[in-house]
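Figure 6 in text form: structure in, sequence out.
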């Protein structure tokens, strides 16, 4: 695994989330209090952008059908609904985050 610089801490003074394009993969970097989480931005159900989702505690809820994911573990905590039927959704990928001084790195499998 290699760590790639994706942002600077000072960027998060004004915003609490950032969408990163890494070699064609969208990664969502979120700051909750002083903890940073990095997850795949695309919902595994039908590709909803979690960047545009609803953030509650340590979870993000997909803006398309409402599936919820734990930002730390990537696990599904709530299945969303399409019409009245619960969707079948998989966990999202998470990435380790490392802070060095003012720089934020994400661990990527190489
Ligand atoms: S696209 Fe995310 S729950 Fe359907």
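Output sequence:
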């Amino acid at each position: 695994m290699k760590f790639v610089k994706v942002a600077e801490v000072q960027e998060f003074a004004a915003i609490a989330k950032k969408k990163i394009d890494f070699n064609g993969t969208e990664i969502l970097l979120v700051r909750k209090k002083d903890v940073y989480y990095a997850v795949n931005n695309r919902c595994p159900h039908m590709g909803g952008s979690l960047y545009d989702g609803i953030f509650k505690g340590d979870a993000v809820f997909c803006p398309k059908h409402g599936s919820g994911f734990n930002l730390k573990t990537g696990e599904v905590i709530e299945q969303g609904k399409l019409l009245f039927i619960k969707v079948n959704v998989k966990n999202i990928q998470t990435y380790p985050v490392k802070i060095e001084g003012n720089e934020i790195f994400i661990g990527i499998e190489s």
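Caption detail: DSSP finds no helices and 13 strands in the chain.
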